[in-house]
Amino acid sequence: MGDPITLIGKWLENLLYSWGLMPGVVSLIMAVIGVVVIASAVLVLDILLVWVERKVVARFQDRLGPNRVGPFGIIQPIADVIKLLIKEDILPIGADKIVYNLAPIMALGTVLLLWAVLPLSSTVYGTNLNVGVLYIVALGAISTLGIIMAGWASNNKYALLGAFRTVAQMVSYEVPLVIALLVPVILARSMGLTDIVEAQSIWFVFIAPIPALIVLITSIAELGRAPFDLIEAESEIVAGFHIEYTGMKFGLFYAGELLHALTVGGIIATLFLGGWRGPGAETYPILGIFYFFIKALFLYWVIMWIKYSLPRIRIDHMLNFNWKFLTPLSLVILIVMAIVDKIVPKTSMLVYSLVMLFVNVVVGWLTLQLLRRNAKSARMRVAEPKPVARPEPSPTAATSQTSSSSS
Amino acid sequence: MLNDWLFIGVFLILAPIFPALALVIPRLIAPRKPNSLKSQTYECGIETVGDTWVQFRVQYYIFALVFLIFDVEMVFLFPWAVAFDQLPLFAVLEGVLFILILVAGLVYAWRKGALEWT
Question: Which terminus of chain B has a lower count of CB atoms within 10 Å, N or C?
Fold first, then answer.
């Protein structure tokens, strides 16, 4: 094993045993050290992400971005953190003090907790939980709770509206997300993330492209990023749930959102893009960390790309898109893939994968045909003249007649 | 196995401490001079009218209800997915039947107009 991180861990464990500590105490101390190392590494990464985000946004909007503080502006986020730390903390009148202060802690804390199960390489992971996927789903629900708490406790109508929208959006998009997450579990026969990575001799994104796409879309909705940023729509409800938050409390929401975006990238990379797998990652586990972060950052970039390219969608469109499109589609693809998986023998992995890919393509094509037909009938409905309360004199009547005769 | 959950337990205790630390530091170094004007509710410049906890659309509540049915049922499907190797085709079809009952619920909610945002 040429892996320095495992070596340090083993050395530390032996050192603790040589001090004559009990095995239970040793594993407790090791767990505490592991947690502190993971959490601080992730938080340092989070500070860097602020720089990455601002720089990439600037490039998408044809600007330069931060470039004054340090080389390429890389010290900018540290200046931001200092500014947030010394900013006055305002508690709005009538706010529920405990819930108000607890909400930002929950927003960042739950994202940190996700890193407990993400396998960074074949040997470096927090813990290999045998219900890893379920753990991720559960934490996703708790991070929603943090936002609802923030909106409810702020004593502000806009914040409350943002919280309601959160209920409608995040809770809705969790349904297709959970259904689509069942597909990699079926393919790998396990909920443990390490097992799922090991099962991907062929990346699951090639076996199940539609579930991968559904997971990406619903994850963006769970993040509350554009085009699904109704919960903090600036032009409608000022800043949504975090309107009353200033200083570091707002900073925690911001940091939580950025880190959540990268974590979602990491989760999708683990479930569909082979996680730490890559050339040489089996023999040199340290390479696996590199591959994992390349994939996670690529997906993070895709999420940013979508965020800064698409406009915000309306709330009824958002809910229709989920309940009338994503949920039925994810149910259909789950049923089809479950049955096909049982029928096709797994003797040859290549044949099995090709059949699965073919099934996905067929379902995707049928969905597109259905959508096209639906859109056509909707267009026909729009073209018909609508009844009006006070009919205008001749010019409009004439045009409506010509339009109806032409259609 | 027990060690895994020990790790999660320790993480569960320590994870809120890191953000909480970031909230304690401003308490020590940041200025703190609240006055009644500064801590007013920020809405649009003029004073707020009425109570914050106003009536809201019942639609939000209906969507939460529809979600509840789905989420509880989806959790039951995870063991089915994990044990896929041991299942004969018949058991898989039974799982599919379970999903179809779920679909019937969705179709019912759809036809009832619970999914319309009017």
Answer: C
Residue A133 has pLDDT above 70, yes or no: yes
Mean pLDDT of A176-200: 87
What digits encode the pLDDT tens for the residues A333-342? 988 888 888 8
Q: Is A154 helix (H, G, I), strand (E, B) or coil?
A: coil
Nearest to A328 by CA among A176, A131, A120: A176
Rounded to 5 degrees, what are φ and ψ at A119?
-80, 115
Interface probe with A: pick from B82, B89, B98, B111, most Cβ of A within 10 Å: B82
Q: Is A248 on the interface with B (CB under 8 A)?
A: yes
In angstroms, the Cα distances linking A271 to A47, A77, A287, A340, B93 are 26, 31, 19, 20, 25
**Average pLDDT of chain A?**
83
* Spatial distance between the Cα atoms of A219 and A217, rounded to a whole number of angstroms: 5
Looking at per-residue pLDDT, the higher value among A61 and B72 belongs to A61
Q: Which candidate, A191, A182, A245, A180, places its Cα nearest to that of A214?
A: A180
- DSSP secondary-structure letter at A323? I
Q: Is residue B118 part of a domain?
A: no
In the stretch 9-68 of chain B, residues with CB closer than 8 A to chain A read 10-12, 14-16, 18-20, 22-23, 25-27, 29-34, 36, 38-43, 48, 52-54, 56-57, 59-60, 63-64, 66-67
Alpha helices in chain B (DSSP H): 2-14, 17-29, 58-82, 89-112
pLDDT for A405 equals 46
Confidence (pLDDT) at A407: 43
Beta bridge partners of residue A119, listed in sequence order: A125
Portion 347-406 of A in contact with B at CB < 8 A: none
- Cβ distance A185 to B78 less than 8 Å, yes or no, reads yes
The answer to whether the Cβ–Cβ distance between A331 and B10 falls below 8 Å is: no
Q: How many CB atoms lie within 10 A of CB A37?
A: 14
Closest CA to A257 of A284, A232, A281, A283: A232
Give CA A38 to chain center in angstroms. Answer: 20
Written as six digits, the tokens of B9 are 């337990």
The alpha helices in A229-326, defined as continuous H runs, are 234-237, 247-272, 285-309, 315-320
Beta-carbon contacts of residue B86 (< 8 Å; ≥ 6 apart): none
Q: Residues 171 to 200 of A: which have CB under 8 A from any B CB?
A: 171-172, 174-175, 178-179, 182, 185-186, 189-191
| Overall number of domains in chain B | 1
Does B69 contact chain A (CB < 8 Å)?
no
Cα–Cα nearest to A180, from A268, A266, A263:
A268
Torsion sign, CA atoms A331, A333, A334, A340: positive
Q: In whole angstroms, what is the distance from residue A113 CA to residue A117 CA?
A: 8
Structural domain that includes position B103: 2-112
What is the spatial distance between Cα A211 and Cα A204, in angstroms, rounded to a whole number?
9
Which of A129, A167, A178 lies closest to B64 in CB terms? A167
